[in-house]
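Much of our argument rests on the idea that a fold can be written as discrete symbols. In the encoding step, the backbone of a single protein was reduced to a row of integers, each denoting a local shape. We regard such an encoding as a compact summary of how the chain folds. The record that follows shows the chain in one-letter code together with its fold in token form:
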Amino acid sequence: MSLRRKRNKIIGMATLAVAISFSMHAQVPGCTDSLALNFNLLAEVNDGSCQYAQQSVYATTIADPISSVVMESSGLLFHDGSLWTINDSGNEPELYQLDPTDGSVLKTVLIDNSTQVDWEALASDGVHFYIGDFGNNQGSRTDLGVYKTPWAPVLQSVGDTVVAAEYISFSYPDQIDFTPLFHETDFDCEAMVFHHDSLHIFSKNWVDNKTRHYRLSTVPGSYEATLIDSFNVEGLITDAGIRPTDDVIMLLGYTEIIQPFLYLLNDFPNGKPLGGNKRRLLLPEHSFQQTEGVAFDDSLSVFFTREFNFTGPGLYHTDVTAVLHPIGVEEIGEKVCSVIRNRGYLNIKLKSKSNAGGSVEVFDLSGRLLLNEGIPDGSDHFSFNDPEPSQVLIIKVGELGIWSTGVIVPLSVIQ
């Protein structure tokens, strides 16, 4: 065999070995959220397929009504310890600072070089705030835009103030028909967040009840927004809020029969909020109320507003910490394994495969042995029935006489 043929054979064998190695170590896609109905213990990459049981959340009333100055509060933002809001079409081009404890107006900020066509959303990158002038309930607007203003002069002023804004003009790449049809368009919009150097816009679709996600530059200028993807929310999206430290986005909306809901988006790939977990949370106490603004505070809680009804506009607050956290996750020892407590089972994933006939023991807090099971040889994942799902338990995982101990808790303890 010639030297060239030997070299090519070696290269081919090496390429095959790399391909086999890659195939053997390819990450498993699936639902990685232990709170989902279709949680997959083996999944390593979240593919956005998680399905959830219907769930309701309940809110604390901060003020009902809040100040009549914000009768049509539309966008909502939490920044520098305060809430900030705007009114929608037909109102002054002003930003309002609200006291988060009672909803009173603390400061009014006039955006003096702006036009209030139909302001609907607020976003912040920490240095600037953005006002979305893209309400479009007839689908006929060709002047969609976002106002960009620095926070510094707003926060430094003692009382009411006046500031100037830069302008970002945009259009939708998929809109070709601008015939005005009231509430018969899929190109209305009321939701926006800032995430990873871009603005992310979520449409309000009156016809198909979906939302489309677009990405838009934050640099003043004229653009065609980039369409990323869409999702059937079965309703009308009226605002969005983000907690950037956790990459968690909350959409707010209501159905055709005015049943308000939240959509919690988390564990998504970079720049694709609709590509991860999408969990719908109903707000049954607010049926037949037009919820219009939502914002995370400094924790995993959200404020939301309701537009004027018989009692005036309202401000509410709800905690979603328990919705995001698994029922019980514990790293045992030096990450010898992780234990996920979910729907009556203890799901265990070992750091490496067992080859020595190990075992798992579970005790209650009095020391009573509740479970003693062997670990299947050659396995790195397995499940057992949870002996006491509502109790705090002690779990020991051992192999070759070496034991690691941890504590697992029920949902009622993780709050």
Observations:
- The first helix runs from residue 3 to 24.
- The radius of gyration is 26 Å.
